Amino acid sequence: MASPYILSPITDDEFDKLLLDHHQKLLVVIFTTAWCKNCKRLAGAIEQMAEDLSKISTFVHIDVDELLQTVKRYNVTSTPTFALFRGPVFQTSITAALLPKQPTPEQSDDQLLGWVSNMTKGFAAQWNASYSKITDHLAFSPTPTEKQIAEGLTKVGFKTVIGMESKQNPGEYLAKEGDLWKEHGITFISYPIKSADEITLQDFDEVLQLIENQAGPILLHSEIGQVAAIFVFAAVAKQNARKASEIPTWASELGFDFEGLGRLTQKMTAWIEK
């Protein structure tokens, strides 16, 4: 991929050095081959995404036929595969085959690239300790670190925090986090969402009830912020009688992209419209 925004290491050692040298930014690594038709179809969109996200990430192109040790180390078995790294630390990866099947290749491409974009923005936001305020009463964020809580978020003015569990942030962390919030007089509630796939319409009912019964402003957080965002937008839509079809445009105006969220968005829509 010939782009000033995409690095292309030609040896395994060069890639390892690149991981160490770029530890201040998220790395989005694309594993492709010269003969991969899907890779060729996505090339232009990937180059544009690399430019669009250049302030928060660095894109890296890996030819799986050249960097064999790297491919083996990260168990890359299909192309294109997208992987996210924080310096040398692998974070997550995705291929089109792991996402819900779409009717056309173009829709599959949009879903895959939407996932990559959302994950990149989500991880970057987590490291920058940012949060997104949707109304005066509700905000969402990625799961904060202890340092982010102590040095920033406790000073924002939140009265209640709802932490949503995931496999990456188990209950032990949330229990410890609760103590940190309580030290600052902020109510902390742990709501056990195990994964996006396990969310039910009842979860939306229960979270809305929590929101309506707690003092605001309220912060909802989840691993990279996407699950929390879905619940916040759903709650605000329900409270203000907004149609589900309006949410993607409304969210986009606030800087949040629903592309790539698939079934989670479908569940939100079903709950709002029931």
UniProtKB/TrEMBL annotation:
SUPFAM superfamilies: (Phosphotyrosine protein) phosphatases II (SSF52799), Thioredoxin-like (SSF52833). Residues 1-121 form the Thioredoxin domain. It comes from the Eukaryota. InterPro entries: Prot-tyrosine_phosphatase-like (IPR029021), Thioredoxin-like_sf (IPR036249), Thioredoxin_domain (IPR013766). Pfam families: Thioredoxin. Keywords: Disulfide bond. This is Thioredoxin-2.
